[in-house]
Amino acid sequence: MPTYTAPDGTQLAYRVHGDGEPLVCIPGGPTDSAYLGDLGGLSAHRQLILLDLRGTGRSAIPEDPGSYRCDRLVDDVEALRDHLGLRRTDLLGHSAGANIATQYAARYPHRVSRLALVGPGTRAVGITITGETRRRLAQLRKNEPWFPSALAALEAITEGTGTDWEAISPFYYGRWDAAAQRHHAAGRPSNREAVAGFAADGAFDPETTRAALARCEAPVLLLAGEFDLNSPPASVAEFAALFPDATLVVQSGAGHYPWFDDAEQFVATTAAFLGDRSPSGGPAAATASPSG
Question: What is the C-alpha separation between 33 and 199, in angstroms, rounded?
Fold first, then answer.
């Protein structure tokens, strides 16, 4: 598994799937990138460079726990771009990883050719998702056998009287079968310190980030799952409005992991977006040759 060195000396690892133009992918969690797989077969269209966030997967635990903070993780992405020898990069962020990708685009707009935000977290831009929004969305699943217990847990969480996050897991998938349950179990964050440090004080500056995104010239895809309680379509639409050149897609029948729920639909949408070229008409980046 290839590695590179972050600015603070931490050794970070990444996975490579497929060939072609690189697509740097930032997982949520914070966790390692294994749960992304090959993004439903997107690796047939692009070379996926999947980063294991520091302290997860094969990446080392940093000496400074403060470096788990979201805004500081942006430096790890920039170091990866430099390590791969890319002048500019196409970037994909999922869930909490979209907060990293968004802050990267705000800080290094000249380094981003295209930006894809999948089931994006919205903390970096200060969009609040209310309990009422989640409850309304949850009603779309009212005919599911697991709905009564999952809704009860959701109500308790939104009211501040409960913390049974496992009970609401079915809401994050388009179908809650054995395969979804295995995927969920495999993708759970294991480094609690990294999770706690991600949103520490100073991690987000929504006003500054929004101002920078308003000047972002890169095309942006925001893809929401129809049923996604983590990133409801209405909130993702609000996010899309912050960019000058944004495309919003709501994938029907999908939850928080649209490539898992319907790989064909996800790949068709994402590959079509990534197939666009920069305004210069040339490729956004050369194929990377991983090393380390």
Answer: 19
